[in-house]
Design brief:
Blueprint (H helix, E strand, L loop, with lengths): L1 H15 L17 H13 L4 H6 L14 E8 L4 E8 L2 E6 L5 H6 L5 E4 L2 E7 H25 L5 E7 L1 H16 L4 E6 L5 E2 H10 L3 E6 L15 E2 L4 E4 L8 E2 L18 H4 L1 E2 L2 E2 L4
Parallel strand pairs: 3-6, 6-7, 7-9, 9-11
Antiparallel strand pairs: 1-2, 2-3, 4-5, 8-10, 11-12, 13-14
Helix pairs in contact: 5-6
Pfam family, one: Lipase_3
Keywords: Signal
GO biological process, one term: lipid metabolic process
Length: about 280
């Protein structure tokens, strides 16, 4: 297992140092806010809790002061794809959160790079496994958002979609459709997300959903998966890169999705950094 993981990491590093194209994209229309980012990270971590604990909102992570007043509407789980999410509302916003991988080392070692055409924009291609996982819960997520919006009331001003690790990839696929479902604005914060699709998808995504902050912590390995040099995989913008443990030491990167001065500038081989965003230990507590 260790030898296979090391070989996988070496391949990822070599491929990620190629094909650094830059596209003209749009920045989010709201400023990155570290306090908001921390709150949405906690929402992301809560998605790792058991479905029963999420549905009753009584896990330790759920009772964090930043999110304890959240009103859960639905805990969602698809057994076939092992995909978990939850939906509810807090104050004037609906929150959708997706769970990441429960075993990061095994997930990286066994990662498959197969792509499939992206249904809303078929000339783009996305990771087949991520897309199948999203499709397996899409209808339940939309139904739960509908209910959340009705309960949240006329003062509900936004939909926020969040996720860590694999959950960040699912959040990306979710938000690209959510924006077309409703008239109120939708936003996304994700953490340690892998690449979701090819450069065509990244460009399309930015056109329909520029209000994205994709946070990367130091030498986190997962944002370097799938390798950029393979099958034209390309990150969606906009990256927010933290080069150190200092939560005030960050850079909002350029609009390409692959800023060579941000996480693409380092050898990203750390699972520890993947599990310690903002010095907060992942995942459910």
């Amino acid at each position: 297992m260790i030898k296979r993981l090391f070989f996988s990491l070496c391949i990822i590093f070599l491929l990620n140092n190629n094909n650094r194209g830059v596209n003209a994209n749009s920045y989010p229309d709201f400023k990155y806010d570290q306090n908001e980012a921390l709150q949405y990270l906690i929402f992301s971590y809560a998605a790792y809790c058991s479905g029963n604990d999420i549905q009753t909102w009584n896990c330790t992570t759920c009772q964090n002061p930043q999110i304890k007043d959240f009103n859960i509407v639905s805990s969602i789980f698809n057994i076939t794809t092992n995909t978990q999410a939850y939906v509810g509302y807090l104050s004037d916003q609906v929150v959708v959160s997706f769970r990441g991988s429960m075993d990061v080392q095994s997930w990286i070692t066994n990662f498959q790079f197969l792509q499939t055409p992206y249904e809303p924009y078929p000339s783009a291609k996305v990771h087949q496994g991520f897309y199948n996982a999203w499709l397996s819960v899409r209808e339940e997520v939309k139904s739960a958002i509908d209910i959340s919006l009705s309960r949240c009331g006329s003062g509900c001003g936004k939909i926020m979609v969040v996720g860590h690790s694999l959950g960040g990839a699912l959040a990306t696929l979710c938000i690209s459709e959510v924006q077309g479902w409703y008239t109120i604005p939708a936003y996304i914060y994700n953490y340690g997300s892998p690449r979701v699709g090819d450069v065509t998808f990244a460009s399309y995504f930015n056109k329909v959903q520029p209000n994205t902050y994709r946070v990367v912590n130091q030498k986190d390995i997962v944002p370097h998966v799938a390798p950029q040099g393979l099958l034209n995989y390309h990150h969606v913008p906009t990256e927010v890169y933290f080069p150190t443990n200092d939560t005030q030491d960050y850079r909002v990167c350029n609009d390409s999705g692959e800023d060579p001065t941000c996480s693409d500038s380092v050898i990203g081989l750390s699972i520890y950094d993947h599990l310690h965003y903002f010095n907060q230990h992942c995942c459910c507590r």
